[in-house]
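can u do me a favor
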């Protein structure tokens, strides 16, 4: 690339940082308004959520087909194409605009995260720029997609290493080149500087108030909880993955023939769950996780209910991510071990390990999960326990589901042309 192309790539990275910043801020406000409305009228979600899902799903169906769901499987599909192929069903400026509808999805009470959509937004922005600079070399096409995906994920979490590792762990199987690594690092640094400094360092868990407590395992008895957390998280994550894939397969025809009715039904189910759990199933799960961390008990039943709300939100056709909802579910699941944890052990360690275990059970990406947990908690002293926990979780999840979730979703898109491509061509 010459200096003009480098400048345009730099401009794209800057724009991506600002886009991520705006979505983070807007999503926080949207979720706050939903919580305020729900606090004022407990049963508002039973009307607000289905109406909102119908509006978002209808807009996407009519104008932004391809913006449904996570966005990571779509990005993987684009990476399997040749640079000369038509990637617009998966990545385009039109899809980028449609993906922004995740913001009102927060306002309407969906159970979702911004991380998966940020991957598709970043990749779409970068391939749009690549299209206008008219470069068709393989390292440019794949490099722009992978750098945009990494920068989008990094900026959405203000966790730069996580974005880099996720792309290398999940996307490098489709294309790998040393020049691509340089593009990824460049995009992540530029977009991360903007989103991090403008928004303030985002942390899923705020540990400043309790950082005087040692976050370390001091005995063999405490280390026994590492494989236990990994086993529970791996099994629970695999259950979620099987459930999601089952729903995608069974509802694919309804998604094409009756998308509005399906969105209304899924929204109604999510609304009922929001009311039943006093809002614990809404949003990304950060508030629930922080409550548990501050020793404010959350009913254990809210874990499977949060899983169900996330499944229904995904099936409704609105843009949604799985990272932060999974962290919230993992935090709730940690309460399973309350009766057997020694009184001398810091229970916050169990919460962190269970969050990592469940997220790894869903993603089957242990290195990404380890780095993410360290970046959002700042607890690098837990590196070895995190590695051990995610290894156990990944092995358990892989034994129960051989093909990782996002790859399975990508295969469904390519195999039956019902969930995605047929919608796009209608």
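np, heres the sequence
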């Amino acid at each position: 690339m010459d200096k003009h192309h480098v400048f345009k790539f730099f401009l794209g990275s800057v724009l991506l940082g600002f886009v991520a910043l705006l979505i983070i801020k807007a999503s926080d406000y949207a979720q706050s308004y939903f919580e305020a409305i729900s606090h004022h009228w407990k049963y508002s979600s039973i009307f607000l959520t289905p109406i909102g899902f119908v509006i978002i799903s209808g807009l996407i169906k009519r104008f932004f087909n391809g913006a449904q769901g996570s966005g990571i499987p779509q990005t993987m599909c684009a990476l399997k194409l040749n640079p000369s192929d038509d990637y617009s069903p998966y990545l385009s400026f039109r899809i980028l605009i449609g993906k922004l509808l995740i913001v009102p999805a927060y306002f309407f009470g969906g159970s979702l995260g911004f991380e998966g959509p940020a991957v598709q937004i970043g990749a779409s922005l970068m391939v749009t720029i690549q299209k206008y600079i008219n470069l068709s070399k393989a390292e440019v096409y794949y490099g722009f997609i992978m750098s945009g995906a990494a920068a989008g994920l990094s900026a959405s979490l203000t966790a730069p290493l996580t974005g880099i590792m996720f792309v290398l762990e999940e996307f490098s199987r489709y294309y790998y080149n040393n020049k691509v690594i340089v593009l990824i690092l460049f995009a992540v640094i530029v977009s991360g500087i903007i989103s991090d400094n403008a928004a303030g360092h985002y942390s899923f868990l705020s540990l400043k108030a309790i950082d005087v407590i040692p976050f370390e395992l001091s005995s063999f008895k405490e280390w026994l909880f590492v494989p236990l957390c990994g086993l529970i998280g791996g099994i629970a994550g695999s259950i979620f993955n099987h459930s999601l894939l089952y729903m995608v397969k069974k509802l694919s025809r309804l998604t094409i023939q009756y998308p509005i009715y399906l969105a209304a039904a899924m929204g109604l189910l999510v609304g009922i769950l929001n009311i039943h759990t006093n809002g614990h199933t809404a949003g990304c799960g950060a508030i629930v996780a922080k409550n548990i961390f501050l020793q404010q008990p959350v009913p254990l039943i809210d874990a499977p209910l949060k899983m169900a709300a996330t499944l229904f939100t995904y099936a409704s056709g609105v843009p949604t991510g799985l990272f932060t909802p999974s962290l919230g579910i993992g935090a709730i699941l940690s309460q399973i071990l309350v009766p057997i944890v020694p009184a001398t052990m810091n229970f916050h360690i169990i919460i962190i390990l269970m969050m990592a275990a469940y997220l790894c059970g869903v993603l089957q990406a242990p290195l990404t999960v380890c780095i993410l947990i360290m970046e959002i908690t700042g607890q690098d002293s837990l590196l070895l326990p995190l590695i051990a926990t995610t290894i156990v979780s990944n092995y358990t999840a892989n034994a129960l589901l051989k093909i990782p979730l996002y790859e399975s979703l990508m295969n469904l898109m390519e195999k039956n042309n019902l969930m995605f491509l047929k919608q796009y061509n209608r």
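The chain is about 70% helix and 0% strand. hope that helps!!
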